[in-house]
TrEMBL record:
InterPro entries: ANTAR, CheY-like_superfamily, WH-like_DNA-bd_sf. Residues 165-226 form the ANTAR domain. One of its GO terms (molecular function) is RNA binding. It comes from Sinomonas atrocyanea. This is ANTAR domain-containing protein.
């Protein structure tokens, strides 16, 4: 299990966020807002979060719509700073905004860019994007980095939990869909057995050959056959 962050005064609200939002999209938006508020002492930087799960589009969220849109654009262009965090788990920074990040924005000439990887579990990667004016004083900069590290760890813990829940939800839905498909196929096998007086294996071979010959999914062929008997497909009953 992911290590729980140290109990700073603001940590308890992460648990409330996890309980309040069941979908990863909505949770990420709430977490991004919370992250922005936590990092406000750094000089009110604009912040955004990006989360990538295998075989899914990258999710982005943040309190500043302009930075969220820009992050999405940079993701589409395979931005090296975002790739450093999302693909290689390395931070990337520039004292001055790179041209690709500065175009069309109004952050000022002193604004810089910082992209920090946020561990999100074995099936996802995440990045925290900050745009703002870096502290000039060394002591202030050390304090800022310490705060950033704490907030990053808090976000990491929450994202690990949220991604794990999303993965389990997706898996349950996939299994339910597979069971529903299997029910239709089993009924079709029964229909063929009754009509052709053959075994279950022979009936399945008939379905499989029809599927291959027509280049149509097995479930589609089975559903067409079952609908000849009754217009409504059988439903798999799940017990809560």
């Amino acid at each position: 299990m992911a290590a729980r962050p140290e109990l700073y005064p603001a940590t308890h609200d992460l648990i409330h966020l996890l309980l309040a939002y069941s979908g990863l999209d909505a949770f990420l938006s709430a977490l991004a807002d919370r992250t922005g508020r936590r990092l406000a002492p750094l000089g009110q930087p604009d912040t955004a979060l990006a989360v990538y799960r295998r075989n899914r589009p990258v999710l982005t969220a943040g309190a500043a719509p302009s930075l969220v849109r820009l992050t999405q654009e940079r993701l589409a262009d395979d931005d090296v700073y975002l790739a450093s965090a999302l693909e290689h788990s390395r931070s990337a920074s520039e004292e001055r905004l790179p041209d690709a990040w500065a175009s069309g924005t109004a952050w000022g000439v002193d604004a810089g860019l910082l992209v920090v990887p946020v561990p999100a579990g074995p099936s996802a990667t995440a990045a925290l994007v900050l745009v703002g004016t870096p502290p000039a004083d060394p002591g202030t900069r050390r304090a800022a980095l310490a705060l950033l590290g704490r907030v990053r760890n808090e976000a990491s813990w929450a994202l690990r939990m949220a991604v794990r829940l999303a993965d389990e939800t997706d898996l349950a839905e996939h299994r339910a869909h597979a069971m529903q498909n299997r029910t239709v196929i089993d009924v079709a096998i029964g229909v063929i057995m009754a009509q052709s007086r053959c075994s279950a294996d022979e009936a399945f071979d008939v379905l499989r050959r029809a599927s291959n010959n027509r280049n149509v999914k097995l479930h589609t062929v089975a559903a067409e056959l079952v609908r000849r008997i009754h217009p409504e497909l059988p439903q798999t009953a799940f017990v809560d």
